[in-house]
Amino acid sequence: MTTLDTLHRILKKDFDLEPEAVQLDTRLEALEIDSLTVVEVLFAVEDEFKVKVPQEPAAQQTSLQTVGDLVAYIDRLVAEQHPAGDAGAPA
């Protein structure tokens, strides 16, 4: 399962967003995902991907403008916190 697939599942379950509406180039604001909602999504990401989202300046989170930005951010966290072969990362 890809990061995008897992994100589809999170957004469907927690925000009732259909996977067809959630593409890499989709802007988060088009999905009505504001900065507060991004924080909620990141809490779900922590649980799902078994990562710790660092407390970063607001400027860092505002750089998440599209679904693709969010996927890249999640992939970076997983790579940093679960090096290849780490059993803690999702399959």
Amino-to-carboxy terminus distance: 6 Å
- What can be said about the biggest beta sheet? none
Give the low-pLDDT segments: none
Q: Secondary-structure element sequence? A: HHHH
The total count of helices amounts to 4
Any idea how many domains? Answer: 1
Mean pLDDT: 87
| Structural class determined from secondary elements | mainly alpha
- The count of strands amounts to 0
Helix content: 40-55%
**Any idea what the radius of gyration is?**
12 Å
Strand content: under 5%
CATH topology: Non-ribosomal Peptide Synthetase Peptidyl Carrier Protein, Chain A
Descriptive account of the structure:
- The chain has 91 residues and is mainly α.
- The protein has a single domain, classed as Orthogonal Bundle (Non-ribosomal Peptide Synthetase Peptidyl Carrier Protein, Chain A).
- 53% of the residues lie in helices and 0% in strands.
- Helix 1 packs across helix 2 (35-49).
- The protein is globular and about 30 Å long.
- 15% of the residues are buried.
- The mean pLDDT is 87.
